[in-house]
Amino acid sequence: MTTSSLDPRLTPARADLAAAFLKGRVTAKRFCEGTRYQLIDGLTNLYGAPDANTPLQTQLLYGEYFTVYDIKDGWAWGQAEKDSYVGYCRADALSPDLHPGTHYVTNLSSHIYSEPNPKSPAVGQVYMMSNVAVINEIPQRGFVQLADGNWIFAPHISKDYGVDPLSEALKFLYAPYLWGGKSSIGIDCSGLIQLAFAATGVFLPRDSDLQAEMIGTTLDDDAVPQRGDIAFFPGHVGFMLDDMHLLHANAHHMRVSIDPLRDVIDIVSFQTDEPPLRFIKRPAED
Fold first, then answer.
1. How many domains, in total, are found in the chain?
2. Hey, which residues does 183 pair with through a beta bridge?
3. N or C: the chain end with fewer CB closer than 10 Å?
4. Residues of the chain below pLDDT 50
């Protein structure tokens, strides 16, 4: 098997270096075991090249694990553990000190404080579905202490997942659009789907084409869409709010919006020669 037959988005392989588990499957000058790091910045950009002026591929959230295969000139090249995405991020956003997550952030965002006091200095900001490591679940002034000695407001985190991806996605209504974004300060269409399902304990791939392979069953052409179905377009995806309206992060309005499905189909039809609506899928029920 050659590198070209593997998805480069999910394959930690370059001409000069590849992950050891790919030995015999790809061609590279050298293979190595990766080193596991953890994200310590609230939001970290992942690029396809070690250059912040190149297009954003995706973003990594606080507490995520990232396997690093190479560090050079301040850039770390590796693979995200959650969705297997490969790319380059700033090395100073990573720490070799690992604190296994105990809770995840349920608020769109939350601040981390140096003391259990909202008037104390905020030392960072974390975003929905970030993992945090709580060492004492007994609140002090409403805050719980984290493994690094800082504090977070207890009602903003949880051990328990939600039950409805669409309800989780609606939290992002009117959030600005950002290609590759995965937070309330900027999100794209597949990022919205990925985060909404993650909030219910279902972990999907990052991009819409990969999500289409995993999500549920395809509706017949004459079937009536229902709340929570997922509509797939060429290079785009969104939640059906009901049988006629779509919730989606989009570049047309540059935000997360609710639009008539018919309007979205018309807009997409001007952007592609493919059928503007590929299919609608119904997620599997537990």
1. 3
2. 186
3. C
4. 1-2
